[in-house]
Amino acid sequence: MRIDLLSIFPKMFAPILNESILGIAQKKELVEFFSHDIRDWSDNKHNKIDDKPFGGGPGMVMKAGPIVTAVEAVEKMDDIPSRLLVMSPQGKRFDQKMARELSTEKRICIICGRYEGFDERIFEVLEPEEVSIGDYVLTGGELAALTIADAVVRLIPGVLGSGDSLESESFDNGLLDFPQYTQPFEWRGIKAPEILRSGNHALIEKWRREKAIEKTKARRPDIFKD
Ligand code: 6GU
């Protein structure tokens, strides 16, 4: 998979993308990331990419020209056409289902904004999908884009080792994860549940499922299905 990231703060990406699982996924050549500075496509000598909103009001709006020119130029850097996403709190809510779907793409291009948003005409011209990662406001789309990249890349076959099972994850079965314990069995006077060292795998399985259901009902009634 190829992921292009467009931003006016492109240096925000590398520290996250080059660490841990995402870094290993790049070394294994399962994903390639390309960060681009939208300012490289500004249409004036001061590299200005934003301006005051028509109609007045606070903040600055990102100009349509530099963003559209940037996307068109980046698109030409590879023959594979991109699935184009724009990060925005007004977008469709990102979830595990969208992550699974995006993980089957060959190429994704993510546009990150700052300030009060984009000139609306970029949506008309580029017809991107607007995506939000949740109901809160970030200072820009960069952390949202990294969140999406992380959730998507870990689902690409081969990215996770066989040790990190994808099969019984939170959200896949509509449930949050069951509680986990490790050594020491008793710590600060708190024992791990006795059943977990019973060796009875059927009982352990049943206990874990009950705990997952309990937790999901209590914390996330919105995702719990009977
Ligand atoms: Cl995609 N962008 C910004 N600025 N804030 C957000 C968001 C995106 N998703 C949730 N909050």
Can you tell me about this structure?
This protein has two domains: 2-153, Alpha/beta knot, CATH 3.40.1280.10; 168-219, tRNA(m1g37)methyltransferase, domain 2 (Trp Operon Repressor, Chain A, Orthogonal Bundle), CATH 1.10.1270.20. It is built from seven helices and nine strands; from the N terminus they run βααβββαβαβαβαββα. It has helices at residues 14-17, 20-27, 64-75, 96-102, 121-126, 142-153, 201-219, and strands at residues 2-7, 32-37, 50-51, 61-62, 83-93, 107-111, 129-132, 186-187, 190-191. The radius of gyration is 22 Å and the shape is elongated. The mean pLDDT is 96. 6-chloroguanine binds next to β5. Residues 87-89, 132-134, 136-138, 140-141, 144 line the site of 6-chloroguanine.
The ligands bound in this entry are:
6-chloroguanine
CATH top level assignment of the largest domain: Alpha Beta
Largest sheet: 5 strands, parallel
Kindly report the CATH topology of the largest domain.
Alpha/beta knot
- Helix amount: 25-40%
Q: Order of strands across the widest beta sheet?
A: 2-1-6-5-7
* Inertia-based shape: elongated
Going by helix content, strand content and strand pairing, the class is: alpha/beta
Low-confidence stretches: none
How many angstroms separate the termini?
37 Å
Element pattern in H and E: EHHEEEHEHEHEHEEH
Round the mean pLDDT to the nearest integer and report it.
Answer: 96
Number of domains: 2
Number of E-state strands: 9
Tally of alpha and pi helices: 7
Give me the CATH architecture of the largest domain, please: 3-Layer(aba) Sandwich
Q: What is the gyration radius calculated from CA atoms?
A: 22 Å
* Assembly annotation: single chain
| Percent of residues in beta strands | 15-25%
The CATH superfamily of the largest domain is SPOUT methyltransferase, trefoil knot domain
